[in-house]
Amino acid sequence: MNNALQLNFSRSRTMTITAGIAGNILEWYDFAIYGFFAPVLGQLFFPSDDPTTSLIASFGAFAAGFLMRPVGGALFGYIGDRIGRKRALNLSVLLMAVPTFLIGLMPTHAQMGVAAAVILVLLRMLQGLSVGGEYTSSIVYLAESAPEGKRGLFTSASLMGAIGGILLGSFLGSLITGMLTEAQLQSWGWRIPFLLGILLAGVGFLIRRHMPETISEQEKTENPLQTLRRNWVQVVKVSGLNLLSAVFFYALFVFVVTWLVDYVEEPRTVALRLNSESLLIFMVAILFFAHMSDRIGRKRLIIPGAIAIILFSYPLFMLMHHPNETMVMAGEIGLAIIAAAYMAPIPAALTEMFPRNIRVSAVSVGYNLAYAIFGGTVPMVAVWLIKKEHDDLAFVWYIIGAGVVSLLVALTLHRQIKNQMPD
Fold first, then answer.
1. Alpha carbon distance 335, 312 (integer Å)
2. What is the set of domains in the chain, with CATH numbers?
3. Is 327 exposed, middle or buried, given 0-12, 13-18 or 19+ CB atoms closer than 10 A?
4. Tell me: the pLDDT tens digits for 353-378?
5. Which of 75, 118, 170, 322, CA to CA, is 20 to 30 A from 126?
6. Looking at the whole model, is its pTM more than 0.85?
7. What is the tens place of the pLDDT at every residue in 125-140?
8. Taking the CB of residue 105, how many other CB atoms lie within 10 A of it?
């Protein structure tokens, strides 16, 4: 292959990956900033004499967005398998942009009363509908675009985009929190990151306008959701695999900021900075383990990853419950690495479980069921467990329980060892 052809081939792959992950950055940026600013939003939209009650209510609105994800998964899965991957990905970006921008313009409880909280929850539900289709559609798109032997690496780009969005949210949250006083943050500062989301949406939509389709007219399914019923066991396995991912990811990279501030008593700027640094470690580890999954198989990484989370989550979170910043960072790095070992092979593994004609629907429904029921509720459940047990580490047992369930599901996998996709 001459240099010109190699350059064009490289550019084509770069554009494919960029188009696949563009929407993920916006989707997860928004979910991240809501999680990071949950204590502020709790006071503004769900005021209470008890700060913990306000925080739980705020995280309840966070969870409401997740409850719409299976609906979004079914809707965008249908679009992806019936109309095309490209259409599903473009529509999901637009559906996320509008409610994100509107949250930035929302009147608070003091200005509008209880209606403000109701509207906030409704906007969160619209966002959840969008997220239900974005991430899983991009996984399938990248898997079907990947060259032979690099599916794990290509599909991990979706996870990288999601992490990039969270990292961007964490960075802006840290920047805004550090530059503004508490009064300014409560008054108008919290609105800035939500309003900026419209810029990300515009860039994402422009990038995706010319992306190629990966499913032909002959391969499209008239009613993919009906066909999906015959594969319900595999769909349940998708949910089971993602149970641990959902619980661990949102505990480690979203709830942990609130936990460090409220329970470990770290300054918010420090908590956000440490979270950003651990996310960078996570991203590097994702690339390494995704590449390894292409070489040795998905199952051979997923099972040891789950075992590591079960065994080491408690001691590493205990290490983080410490006034020394270095100890906190060491715990976060350790958790980020074992999270990557488990999560990096999963995107490719999910696509390898289903034929092309129902792939988006199956992955979307199974994945989003787990994240709706268990992922979005993590912050709320974690705060409740801590309060109930009077133990700042009580939520870690929730992670361990999820790890046991996902490990049992992983032991039943077969196809992932071969790293093959059915037609």
1. 8
2. 13-205+228-417 (1.20.1250.20)
3. middle
4. 988 888 988 999 999 899 888 887 88
5. 170
6. no
7. 888 888 888 888 889 8
8. 9
| Sign, Cα dihedral of 242, 245, 251, 253 | negative
Contacting residues for 67 by C-beta, under 8 A, at least 6 apart: 125, 128, 372, 376
Q: How far apart are the first and last CA of the chain?
A: 29
Q: How far apart are CA 56 and CA 377, in angstroms?
A: 10
Nearest-10 Cα torsion for 52, 58, 59, 61? 150
Residue 187 is encoded by which pair of tokens?
Answer: 């008054």
Cβ atoms of 96 and 127 within 8 Å: the answer is yes
User: Rounded distance, CA 407 to CA 422, Å?
Assistant: 24
Least confident of 163-167, 284-288, 341-345: 163-167
Tokens of 295: 């070489």
Q: Are 88 and 95 in contact (CB under 8 A)?
A: no
* Rounded Cα–Cα distance for residues 154 and 290 (Å): 8
